[in-house]
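FORM 7B: Structural annotation worksheet

SECTION A. Query
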Amino acid sequence: MLTVLLAMACGVFEGSGLPDHAVAVRAQLAEALVERDPSVVGPLAEKASEWEGKDGDLDRLLGDALANVLMHPQDGLRLLRSRPDPWNSSWVEAIKADSVRMGDPVVMKATWAELGERVPSFDNPVVPQLVQQLLSDPALASDRAVAGIDGCALLDQQPSVGRKELDHRAGPGLLKVGALMGADQVVVGRPLYRSDPDPQTGRGPLQCVRKVLLEDGWPEPLSRTLTVGLRQGQRKVFIDIKGDNGEPWAYAASDQVAGGRMLRALDLLGSEQGEEQLRAMLERGLWAVDAAGAP
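SECTION B. Predicted structure
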């Protein structure tokens, strides 16, 4: 599909005969799209529409403005598709964000596939929440949607049975442990509360199927219970945490060995040369086994 998109881009005639005042409007619109204030972008987009179809750069800017600031994604998608420029990161982001704001998983999948990128799980139940969030905030980009989808996809994989007991101090340093060990993904979640906003409004944190995704990481103050999930390759571990006299305490894990290793690594984090020891300990990964066969 990327080959087709490249061919389309090569076949589009890029006009360059704009009058000086149109060039000035184009420059003003480009500058306004940095801040993405609808009250500024709107009048400039209206002016720019006078020269729609006359200049590729102007059409791409106008498409971005219509789709991702003024929230007319269908009109924006038409313009952006008429002026493909897969070498231009601004056009790529504009059409990806536009596709999410369209709200149709089929359009989203097609856009990512045409660009030759990994196609996220756009059928995930969290997608309508993400669409509403992007429609309500011009500053949000497509990576917001991808992060939300991937975060919920991992958090919802926590096993509901088979958890092993733990009894160990926990803390926000667990997230740093995950980063130091080269985890592909680390997520934090909490239970759903009845006081959480209706998910379809797009307000509040993302509500996955089973938990709320805390995209800002470790919450302050600590929620009643908390889950830290980590993925490395195809392997995953989930650690359940609760408050104990005001202190976070890990009480269960989906994988006792991997969870215990993360918590022991957390103890090293605050010590002298702790990060160096931690990297050496975890350089082969959380599930590595030493020569003697011990994890």
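SECTION C. Observations
The longest helix spans residues 20-35. Residues 164-282 form one domain.

SECTION D. Sign-off
Analyst initials: ____
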